[in-house]
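Blinded run. Sample ID left blank on purpose so nobody reads anything into the name before looking at the predicted structure. Input follows.
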Amino acid sequence: MTTTPPTPPSSSTPPSSARSHRTQAERRAQTRAALLDATIECLVELGYPRTSMQEICARAGVSKGAFQHHFAAKSDLMASAVEQLTIRLQRRSAPEARDLPEGPDRIAAAIDLLWDSYSGTLATAAMELWIAARTDPELRRAIRPVDRALGRSTLELLTGLSGDLPEERMQTLFWLTVNLTRGLALDAELGGDPRRRQQLLDEWKRIATLHFGE
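Blinded prediction complete.
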């Protein structure tokens, strides 16, 4: 009686250790993403003072030990959450940036793009952290590099859209717009009149187009 030898394993089948490694990496990424998403939710819904690690872990569905495995401190988690949100918003607005109109209307459209980036969820979460960082040195050290990186990346995006506008004038336009939009975002958080905010934004677009669109 002839015995059929066993079929050798396919060379395309990865070793079990490789499969396990990828699964663990995916799990770690999912846990980290869940913690970051939960942090943003808490900052927006509860504010920084009421955003506890217990609440974040409960919303993320992970243990406190899992948090400690991914982040050295609460301040690191906060900074990473805002960084992740910023990256998402920049990726979302990249197609819009490529489609900005030519000519004088380009400046006004770029300002609208900055307003979209610096308002909404990002503005709410960042505002909570900026205010808390004033009296929390550890948090301030953690979020300052993130805030600067956000400014640099947004300025680079805007510079690429500015055409022939000199760099110094581009930076002036950028920082004037950023500080205006941050103020308008704070006004929105305090329940200010949305019609007034729109009027101020429209007026700044008119002035900026006249002054920087020459």
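Unblinding after everyone has recorded impressions. The chain has a mean pLDDT of 81.
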